[in-house]
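Repro:
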Amino acid sequence: MTSPILFIHVVTYNNAEFLPHCLEGLSDVLRKSLSGRRIVVRITDNQSSDNTRQILAQSPVPLDVVLLENNSGFRSEER
């Protein structure tokens, strides 16, 4: 397996209101900008309590979804 040419990582928490627009934009990028190239889109959900996870499950964009059991914020360890 070859490495992706582009790796997009989105971290979200209770952003169901904005996710459809975000996914639509990602869909455009995948379809137009880098057609035929390997692109990985990962979305990490920080234990949202809205319907973020349902929206991700119905995404028209192929996603690598990480569903966290605890909200770890934008970084997972203290420095």
